[in-house]
Amino acid sequence: KNEAPESEGAFEQGLRTGPWRAWHESGGLRCEGTFVDGEAFGWWSFWYEHGTKRSEGEMREGKQVGPWNAWHYDGSANREEAGIYWEDELLLRKRGPSFLSESPPR
Question: What is the chain's mean pLDDT, rounded?
Answer without folding.
Answer: 89
